[in-house]
Amino acid sequence: MPHRVNHIAVVVDDLGSALNFWRDALGLTLERTESNADEAVEIGFLPLGESEIELLQPIDADSGIGKYLAKHGAGLHHICLEVADIDASMAQLRAYDIELINDAPKVRPEGTRYCFVHPRSTGGVLVELYELPK
Length: 134
What we know:
It is built from three helices and eight strands; from the N terminus they run βαβββαβαβββ. The chain is α+β, with helices and mostly antiparallel strands. The chain has one domain: 2,3-Dihydroxybiphenyl 1,2-Dioxygenase, domain 1. The protein is globular and about 45 Å long.
């Protein structure tokens, strides 16, 4: 199934302030920022080896990330694992009675298909699965 960590997502109160640590103090490069209207977040992408750190700043307090920040505060949000075939991966997880948050994969504008695995099934960690466009 998974063959690498695609990214580790961290919820932040303020992207600019978070960059003081991640970019300035640690020396990671901010590759780009992007707004994701579907998820109501501003994202900072910081490559790290073959993976990335993604900093997620909610742009709507009523969004999933906004509610998460209000309830849990800033910190680790999820780990994203890359898979070759998200449909087969989801079917395999269902066969083991693993609870998925999405019934079907969502699709990002560039074609990445993704879904989330509920923390109740993972020992408390929100896991995202990514199938990159071919």
